[in-house]
UniProtKB/TrEMBL annotation:
Annotated InterPro entries: UPF0194_transport
Lineage, highest ranks first: Bacteria, Pseudomonadati, Pseudomonadota, Betaproteobacteria, Burkholderiales
PANTHER family: BLL5650 PROTEIN, EFFLUX SYSTEM COMPONENT YKNX-RELATED
Protein name, as recorded: HlyD family efflux transporter periplasmic adaptor subunit
Gene Ontology CC terms: cell envelope
Key words of the record: Coiled coil, Membrane, Transmembrane, Transmembrane helix
Localization in the cell: Cell envelope
Segments crossing the lipid bilayer: 185-204
Superkingdom per UniProt: Bacteria
């Protein structure tokens, strides 16, 4: 304790001083120190209001605490005004007495509104004498000399504690300092190198769909217009069941015309046969009439055969796969144009649309894991059968390779048409190459090396 601090101070005041010093030394951060300053310094000298400022890196004072408040908001009218007042106070001397008469004219109205008449400004200094903080105390009565000596002494302690707290590194800074130590860096580098050598499989994730591996194409048997569908998409059928029919209205008219023409030809042939009994010359007409009958019979048989092919039937048991029936009704089709597929549900597999940008080397038998949207928590395992040689447009409009795989075990959840996401695994490599493969490819593409 300095002699100046002890001169004129009573024993209780000195006890309060020691108590405040202990509280300041035990503060864990600037906020805790500021709370002690603005709320407990009244043990040495009563005040009505107090404001605590900290000097930032640019030298500007920032309001960090106010008496009676747990936290302060920097954009309130009081905070803005008291900060302007603090900026007008000089860093010397350590303790300054102020009254409203000494205030700048622009701050007088705010002083009358926010603060009592008598102020005490205490600068907080570091070990080099630089101001690192400021405390303003305000009360209605004038400050006494014996109070100033104790207050000046405690603010030397406050400045020391504020400097120590400003230098104390946070937990992240301490961790960074430890990591920068040579031994730690060497150990981390070795651990990273070992981790990068861990063997992993190259893999790619792409959209996928459950498909039939050996589906039978059901095509239009002739030119015409699709008239009706007799089954719904993705429904099971038996061999011989009707699938779809072409519009047969034109063929029915042709069959009616051919039938009438056949009747006329037969009547003419019968008449020629009757004439042949009486006239030898009519025998030649009989042969011609019989020839026309055979011709009309052939025409009628052709039309009826065409009518029979208008309705397409299932060649075997299976599941019918096609799009929306409304997209086909009334649509003209060519002979051999595929309209639907007949699939065996026991022969389901997976079709993966692997984008060109994600392509990796794949060999037959490579593992495939399919995560269906309908059951994402129950992945299905499959093995690769084949990959397409040339990239095509996927249903999403992305240039992709078609990768087909067979399920290792069929289940009820592998319904044809279900979609999901598949992970295709390729050859083994190290973890470092797994992470650096794309950056290396991008650098080579950009540099041309």
């Amino acid at each position: 304790m300095t002699s100046s601090a002890g001169h004129g101070a009573t024993a209780p005041a000195l006890g309060d001083l020691l108590h405040l010093e202990q509280r300041a030394f035990s503060a864990l951060n600037t906020q805790a120190l500021g709370f002690t300053i603005v709320n407990e310094t009244s043990l040495l000298g009563h005040f009505r209001q107090a404001a605590f400022f900290v000097t930032g890196a640019t030298g500007a004072l920032t309001l960090c605490g106010a008496s009676g408040l747990v936290s302060v908001v920097g954009d309130t009218p009081y905070s803005v005004w008291v900060t302007q007042l603090a900026k007008t106070l000089a860093p010397q001397p350590p303790v300054q007495l102020l009254d409203i008469g000494s205030a700048p004219e622009s701050l007088v109205d705010g002083w009358q509104e926010w603060l009592p008449e008598h102020l005490l400004a205490c600068n907080l200094k570091d070990s080099e004498g630089t101001r690192i903080g400021l405390v303003i105390y305000a009360r209605d009565e004038a400050w006494q000399e014996h109070e100033l000596s104790l207050i000046a002494r405690i603010h030397e302690t406050y400045g020391y504690c504020l400097q120590a707290l400003a230098r104390t590194p946070g937990p992240w800074k301490s961790l960074a300092a430890r990591l920068l130590q040579r031994r730690t860096m060497v150990g981390a580098a070795i651990a990273l190198a070992i981790a990068l050598l861990i063997p992993v499989r190259l893999s790619a994730v792409a959209p996928a769909e459950v498909v039939a591996l050996s589906a039978v194409a059901i095509a239009s048997p002739q030119e015409g217009v699709v008239g009706a569908f007799h089954v719904q998409p993705n429904t099971p059928v038996k061999a011989g069941d009707k699938l779809f029919s072409l519009d047969d209205r034109g063929l029915e008219s042709r069959r009616a015309v051919a039938a009438r023409a056949l009747q006329t030809a037969r009547a003419d042939a019968l008449l020629a046969e009757q004439r042949a009994f009486d006239d030898a010359k009519s025998k030649g007409e009989l042969a011609a009439a019989q020839g026309r009958v055979k011709e009309k019979e052939a025409e009628l048989a052709l039309v009826e055969g065409t009518l029979e092919r208008v309705t397409v039937r299932a060649p075997a048991d299976g599941v019918i796969i096609f799009g929306d029936a409304n997209d086909w009704l009334g649509r003209p089709v060519q002979t051999g144009e595929r309209i639907m597929q007949l699939a065996d549900p026991r022969d389901a597999g997976v079709m993966v649309w692997l984008p060109v940008a994600d392509a990796i080397n794949l060999e037959p038998g490579a593992p495939i894991r399919l995560f269906l949207h309908t059951q994402p928590l129950s992945p299905l395992s499959a093995s690769l059968l084949e990959t397409s040689y040339q990239a095509v447009q996927s249903p999403a409009g992305v240039s992709s390779y078609r990768v087909r795989g067979r399920f290792e075990q069929q289940s009820a959840g592998t319904r044809i048409g279900l979609r999901g996401t598949a992970r295709v695994s390729g050859e083994w490599t190290c973890l470092g190459y797994y992470f650096l493969r794309r950056p290396i490819a991008a650098v080579r593409e950009w540099t041309g090396l």
